[in-house]
Design goal:
The chain has 2 domains: 227 residues, Vaccinia Virus protein VP39 (Rossmann fold), CATH 3.40.50.150; 91 residues, no CATH class. The protein is built from 10 helices and 10 strands. It is globular and about 70 Å long. 36% of the residues are buried. This is Histone methylation protein DOT1-like protein. Keywords: Methyltransferase, S-adenosyl-L-methionine, Transferase.
Length: 364
């Protein structure tokens, strides 16, 4: 299919009213209860990162503390903005979320030996901001995921493996496993607390599925014809084997091989600075024909052909792009940087000074 920008009028624009499922009369009741059970992750409490000598985030914490110390004192705002200004291409938002009052930096004092901002290089700040963007959390709403799977299913062969890189609390992975007949759905998440919450949600999902199956008036067998929420036909195995089809991994997305995936999902709204590295990884590992979807940021790599582009406000609140892996295997990354994002520095500084003044109660 040729690449095309779609402006459909058939996509949902809000979540349907829901009523809690009281009785399981048919498989559709089980599906509805399971979908309801995985909603609401965007409102979860964000714990702070652990401040301990053995923390894998210790270098991140050191730089974060140094930046936050400058943010908290109005007389230091000029210097903070001076250090951030060269790195706008890799910043998400006006100021780094982690140093804001509700960010993930601990409220405790820094550990002895932590450096001041003057002793931290520009390269370290640059890489810190890239890592910081990956810690920001967001989720698609239920109706947006329904739209997404409606859009992606015409391009998917039967079965296959779906991988969500940066899977958070697991909503997309579990929704995928319910909606379409994937052989396996895998979520990869770096932060331990998000991985742990995804595992807890999966336990609740599978417990509810077992309760629903046991309550059906007639037993569902492995070969019972079953219409999935997407309209695709499958068999009872889809629900009976649900637990074996979902896997969550606590790992760095760059350390997990996606060679067997038929679909890679990226909620990449906070991955702008990583898009070149991610697309190089996917070009090396994915087989020809595999699909990749991104949000907000496009893939600009010769190994991927755009199939569909959905503008903000149609499929989702942000843009959604669907790509297909084309051409031979690529052992080497493309030689040029393809994603370059550079906000207007003067306009950014005006916004940053306003935000800093609001937070500290003083002028900058």
């Amino acid at each position: 299919m040729d690449s095309t920008t779609l402006q459909p009028t058939t996509f949902r624009t809000e979540n349907r009213p829901t009523v809690a499922v009281q009785r399981f009369r048919q498989p559709a009741d089980i599906f509805e209860a399971l979908f309801q059970s995985v909603q609401g992750g965007e409102a979860h409490a964000r714990p702070t990162l652990e401040l301990a000598p053995e923390s894998p985030f210790l270098p991140f914490l050191e730089i974060g503390f140094a930046l936050r110390a400058r943010m908290e004192k109005p007389e230091h705002h000029d210097y903070l903005l001076q250090r951030l200004r060269p790195h706008l291409s890799v910043m998400i938002g006006t100021l780094p979320a982690s140093i804001l009052p509700m960010g993930m930096l601990p409220k405790l004092a820094p550990l002895p030996g932590f450096r001041e901002l003057e002793d931290i290089s520009d390269d370290e700040i640059h890489h810190w901001l890239i890592q910081e963007g990956g810690l920001i959390y967001g989720e698609m709403q239920r109706f947006e995921l329904e739209n997404y799977f409606d859009a992606i299913k015409p391009f998917l062969p039967p079965g296959g493996v779906m991988v969500d890189l940066g899977s958070g609390l697991g909503k997309v992975v579990m929704t995928a496993a319910l909606t379409l007949p994937f052989v396996r759905c895998i979520g990869v998440e770096l932060l331990n607390y998000r991985h742990r919450l995804a595992q807890e949600r999966l336990v609740r999902l599978l417990t509810l599925a077992r309760q629903g199956l046991a309550a059906l008036p007639g037993a569902l067998t492995l070969e019972t014809p079953l219409r999935l929420p997407s309209g695709v036909m499958a068999t009872g195995r889809h629900l009976l084997d649900l637990g074996s089809r979902i896997l969550f991994l606590e790992n760095d997305m760059f350390k997990v091989d996606v060679r067997g995936a038929s679909l890679v999902f990226l909620y990449s709204t906070c991955f702008g600075p990583l898009m070149d590295a991610i697309s190089d990884k996917l070009a090396r590992e994915l087989p020809e024909g595999a699909l990749v979807s991104t949000t907000t940021y496009p893939i600009k790599h010769p190994a991927f052909r755009l199939l569909q582009s959905h503008a903000p406000g149609t499929l989702s609140w942000t843009s959604v792009m669907i790509y297909q892996r084309i051409g031979p295997e690529m052992a080497q990354p493309a030689s040029e940087a393809r994603y370059l994002h550079q906000p207007d520095a003067d306009a950014w500084e005006i916004r940053a000074r306003e935000d800093l003044a609001d937070m500290t109660g003083g002028g900058t």
